[in-house]
Design brief:
Strand content: 5-15%
Radius of gyration: 23 Å
Low-confidence stretches: none
Number of strands: 4
Distance between the termini: 66 Å
Oligomer: single chain
CATH topology of the largest domain: Translation Initiation Factor IF3
CATH superfamily of the largest domain: TusA-like domain
CATH architecture of the largest domain: 2-Layer Sandwich
Order of helices and strands: HHHHHEHEHEE
Number of helices: 7
Amino acid sequence: MSDIGKTLRDDHRRIRTELAENVRRALDRGTRDDLNALLALLQGELLAHARAEQTDLYPTVDRLVHEYGRATATMDIDHEKIAVQVRHIAAAVERLRAARERMPRMEARTELREALLRLDTLLDVHLEKEERVYVPLLEQHLSPAEQGSLLERFEGAERTQAPHSTDELDVRHVSARDRHALIFATFDRLPVGGAFTLVNDHDPRPLSYQFSADRPNAFSWDYLERGPVWRVRIGRTA
């Protein structure tokens, strides 16, 4: 019996690999053959894959989601990817601020531009899905009173969530290369008197030395938990 999950995952992995290779060749060499191969992949296999999903795969998925799943689960994944790109942007901005020489500044600018383009694409698709699918459902099937109540709860949740977006910064799954830049970017966004909790998988004591050098007399450092998960409350004092 065939394993549809394995087949689809392998197909997706192959498309990603082929696309990455074709993009690299088109950008690095950019010969006529390279550009033709890239267009052939995009206009041929990629769009054919998308059409096959719409005609043959998604109708079955619709039924299964209705019976067993949650229709907004894919949007949660969008939010996870958006948060990742925001972290990449914050880290690139901090590297750009800290760079003093031409090459590191150029590299940081390139990383920032790429992260911003990825975020722009993610947001464009994500918001389009909400406005074309979810908003019409809300407008057509909720009474004005229900819409008002939902909007009030939503706006209240926005106000409640905003201060907590940087209240805890978990860097355990952030690459070592990006951690310090992300932490400093988070610190620099704090108002005087503000603070956040850093969550790490080891004692971040060396980071405190960097704070002392780069932000002297402007921060507080208080351990909340010492291993195996380390939590430090970092505040902005000046």
